[in-house]
Design a protein that fits this description.
By secondary structure, the chain is of the alpha/beta class. It has nine helices and seven strands; from the N terminus they run H-E-H-E-H-E-H-E-H-E-H-E-H-H-H-E. The protein is globular and about 55 Å long. InterPro entries: NAD(P)-bd_dom_sf, Sc_DH/Rdtase_CS, SDR_fam.
Length: 270
């Protein structure tokens, strides 16, 4: 390895919603890939995020910044990007992973729950894209912006009207952002998970179990796909690993007409 290669700084990725589920899986994979990380989640996740950061440092030698806040608050996301850049010197990728879901028929959805979904899923993604783009443009070396869509962004799902609306919005954000930032060498894509074994899926399953009286797992195992199983966080993390890599340099919504990649075992077809 040349001196120039040795002096080259490691790439840095921010992951929102990193304490558990898909976010945690992405953090583990990107650390294994050799990236340094900025991990972001709510203050209530402090213990889990601290444990994750420590394990990444020990196993992979990853330099980790841990920042707490709420993606629905613009100042928190701005502070996240500023803190990570201050501690690491630069940014390469933003993984706007944080999101929430509820089960409600449209007319039974409380307005405050609709606002919560819009604030976290849509505004949180918007703020993450915005401040990552500002930093990446300022640096002038390109980069990656990746958002969390869902199979719920591909087709409507019963009792998920508000959630589907937020995930359809992420498709529009991603497509438009890719067109805005391609000239800066910034690619913008989204991953669209199906049923992934996470605390979020288990929470939805618990809701349906109480409603129907059926055993736990009945609803979460009701999704049908070609592979015959629910996904794991690492299944999504593998795709994110590719999208962050140099191998995906020519993949963006602006060039291939796609805004997202399904990770659903073959549930949805276009």
């Amino acid at each position: 390895m040349s001196q120039e290669q040795e002096a080259s700084p490691k790439r840095v990725a921010i992951i929102t919603g990193a304490a558990e589920g898909i976010g945690r899986g992405i953090a583990l994979r990107l650390a294994r890939d050799g990236l340094d990380l900025g991990l972001f989640d709510l203050p209530r996740s402090e213990a889990r995020l601290a444990e994750l950061a420590e394990s990444l440092k020990k196993e992979y030698g990853t330099k980790v910044s841990v920042v707490f806040g709420d993606v629905s608050k613009e100042e928190d996301v701005k502070r996240l990007v500023e803190t990570v850049v201050l501690e690491h010197g630069s940014l390469y990728a933003m993984i706007a992973n944080a999101g929430v879901a509820i089960n409600r028929v449209l007319h039974e959805t409380p307005t405050e729950e609709l606002d919560r979904l819009l604030n976290i899923n849509v505004k949180g993604t918007f703020f993450s894209y915005k401040y990552a783009a500002i930093q990446l443009i300022k640096q002038g070396h390109g980069g990656r912006i990746i958002g969390a869509a869902s199979i719920a962004s591909k087709k409507g799902i019963a009792e998920h009207s508000a959630y589907c609306a937020t995930k359809f919005a992420i498709r529009g954000l991603t497509q438009s952002a890719a067109m805005d930032y391609g000239k800066h060498g910034i690619t913008v894509n989204a991953y669209a998970p199906g049923a992934i074994e996470t605390p979020l899926l288990h929470g939805l399953d618990e809701y349906h179990s109480k409603l129907s009286g059926q055993p736990r797992g009945t609803w979460s195992n009701s999704f049908t796909n070609i592979l015959g199983r629910n996904g794991q966080p690492e299944d999504v993390a593998k795709l994110v690993s590719f999208l962050v890599s140099d191998d995906a340099a020519f993949i963006t919504a602006a060039t291939d007409g796609l805004s997202q990649y399904l990770v659903d075992g073959g549930t949805c077809f276009d």
